[in-house]
């Protein structure tokens, strides 16, 4: 599905790792997608997706399963996110198909970020240099995503402090010259249209009730 969408958007689709399942499907995959607006479009696909289907072994009942999608930005400069001095590098022999080159030489690479403890393991290519390059890209992408999440969290908390807690109801006292004369026309039911955080594809409509009452002098 994502491959067809990438072709439709004329993005460059480069699969790096495909783990096939015995039943004929794909258990996990790592794909690099490059193009204009890739991360801006696909970042909302991150999360847990529910898949409903009729499997080949049982055509009488619909089965429900889940798939997890992680969307990470690829940093333009890896050195800006991770430095070799902060990374512990381990090499080992890879298992599986690939001939004597991967079975007798240490082509697999494991990188561990000392500060955060993030570990990346790569056995995709037949050479240690290629696996090292891919592992550094994955590690830099994970660290960059963590920085983006922290920045978004700080922005959300500061925005919550400015705009309030977003509670269902609130009572606000406003005093000043001509306040009631100006705000009394705001009383009534207001319709609010917005794109919620959990669904950026559809506009949701809700209502809010505003009551404007004059404050008695005595």
Automatic annotation (TrEMBL):
Keyword terms of this UniProt record: Methylation, Protein biosynthesis
Pfam families: PCRF, RF-1
Gene3D superfamilies: 3.30.160.20, 3.30.70.1660
Annotated Gene Ontology cellular component terms: cytoplasm
UniProt GO MF annotations: translation release factor activity
Top-rank taxon: Eukaryota
Domain Prokaryotic-type class I peptide chain release factors: 93-109
Signal peptide (residue range): none
InterPro entries: PCRF, Pep_chain_release_fac_I, Pep_chain_release_fac_I_sf, Prokaryotic/Mito_RF
UniProt similarity note: Belongs to the prokaryotic/mitochondrial release factor family.
Name of the protein described by the UniProt record: Peptide chain release factor 1
């Amino acid at each position: 599905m994502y491959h067809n969408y990438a072709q439709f958007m004329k993005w460059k689709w480069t699969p790096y790792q495909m783990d096939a399942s015995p039943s004929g499907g794909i258990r996990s995959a790592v794909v690099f997608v490059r193009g204009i607006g890739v991360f801006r479009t696909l970042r909302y696909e991150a999360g847990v997706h529910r898949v409903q289907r009729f499997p080949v072994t049982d055509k009488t009942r619909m089965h429900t399963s889940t798939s997890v999608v992680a969307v990470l930005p690829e940093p333009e400069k890896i050195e800006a996110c991770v430095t070799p001095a902060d990374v512990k590098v381990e090499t080992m022999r890879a298992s599986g198909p690939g001939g004597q080159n991967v079975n007798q030489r240490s082509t697999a690479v494991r990188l561990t970020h000392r500060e955060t403890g993030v570990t990346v393991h790569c056995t995709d290519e037949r050479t240690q240099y290629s696996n090292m390059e891919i592992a550094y890209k994955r590690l830099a992408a994970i660290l960059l995503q963590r920085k983006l999440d922290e920045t978004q969290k700080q922005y959300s908390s500061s925005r919550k402090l400015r705009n309030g807690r977003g509670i269902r109801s609130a009572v606000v006292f406003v005093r000043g010259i001509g306040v009631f004369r100006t705000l009394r026309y705001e009383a009534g039911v207001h319709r609010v249209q917005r794109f919620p955080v959990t669904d950026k594809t559809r506009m949701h409509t809700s209502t809010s009730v505003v009551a404007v009452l004059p404050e008695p002098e005595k």
